[in-house]
Design a protein that fits this description.
The structure is a homodimer of 203-residue chains. Chain A has helices at 14-17, 32-42, 63-78, 137-151, 168-182; strands spanning 20-27, 49-52, 57-60, 84-92, 119-128, 154-158, 161-167, 189-197. The first copy, chain A, has 203 residues and is α+β, with helices and mostly antiparallel strands. Chain A has one domain (14-93, 115-197): Alpha-Beta Plaits. In chain A, strand 2 and strand 3 (57-60) form a beta hairpin. The N and C termini of chain A lie far apart (67 Å). The mean pLDDT of chain A is 89. Chains A and B meet through strand 1, strand 4, strand 5, helix 4 and strand 7 of A and strand 1, strand 4, strand 5, helix 4 and strand 7 of B. Chains A, B: Residues 19-97, 121-201 form the Thiamin/hydroxymethyl pyrimidine-binding YkoF putative domain. Chains A, B: InterPro entries: MTH1187/YkoF-like, Thiamin/HMP-bd_put_YkoF. Chains A, B: This is YKOF-related protein. Chains A, B: It comes from Diaminobutyricimonas aerilata.
Chain lengths: 203, 203
Amino acid sequence: MTTTTSAPVAAPTPQEFGVGARVTLAVMRDDYVDVILGALRATDVSGLTVATDPVSTFVGGDEQSIVRFLVDLTGRAAASGAHVSATITFSRGCPGEVACSPTVARASEVPSVERVGRDALAQWALYPLSDAPSADHMRDIYAAIDHAKELGTFAGSEHFVTNLRGDLADVIATAAAGWVLVGRTVPHVTSHLTVSLNSPSVA
Amino acid sequence: MTTTTSAPVAAPTPQEFGVGARVTLAVMRDDYVDVILGALRATDVSGLTVATDPVSTFVGGDEQSIVRFLVDLTGRAAASGAHVSATITFSRGCPGEVACSPTVARASEVPSVERVGRDALAQWALYPLSDAPSADHMRDIYAAIDHAKELGTFAGSEHFVTNLRGDLADVIATAAAGWVLVGRTVPHVTSHLTVSLNSPSVA
């Protein structure tokens, strides 16, 4: 039997680790206020901290609940039939604006969510923000893009972004999966996704 | 007189260095298609490569021209009187989706643009993506936020983002300035800005 002088350190909670997202819903119709506020009111916020400001809605909590919230919220807005653009930022490892205390990564399960039967187009960027000597941010990004190809949502490469297309749930889950997977080795990771629903540009 | 066996290396052009931006304009009114396409058609694209896809518009060129384009485009959309949300991504140092060949930074002038007399709210995030041994991405972000305070657009810190408020031109120029300033020492830098115009949430 071995003994140790240091007490076991509890893994940080999602809140302590700054696991969260921001979403800006844009609804391109005259009744956008009713659609946006109606979707926000109807979406289940169990286990989450949710705060809406004039530019976006912050949602903090565990990865699975965040993904469920985002799929539900954007799906409800799109159910209005209006053209909807949702700008989503995932972040982990930096609890405040710039209070990046974590120096170790936090392993999480890849969120899974059921398909909702709604087609989405999106553009995605993933940012591993590692200052470690082993940092190789493009290696991590390539791995996440390979994961998107496995999921079937990869729809091509463009300047600065990866195009995604598929069921709304799969598209949001792809961006979240890359974020969680890179987050197993990099403490501070963000992922940006612009989702287009009911686009008149798509047949 | 000294001689050298290596030919002088020309600095990369903005295009070669992958200097560019993406913008998604969301206009929250029934006539959004006319407003968005009208703004895109009316905005001067001199010296720029512009390509619109179903999710966003890519604009490549020098920093000054990109900022002028973005201020003009978003200002024209807002001149409709509709509530407008613009999602902007600046990128440098990664010409393709993941083709990050540059290993040295590229110094550029901080873009300057005249005020347009239109108030904007925004949330801003800046990502220095350095793998160098000297990497300290939070040091670079702190410096950029200090710069926003000097410009007078800093409006507080939130989870994952910095709030900006001020003339539309100053708000966009703030995000571009942080991007260019960090870009003097870090090859690959992106900056994300969500701009809200004519918001009913603001008195």
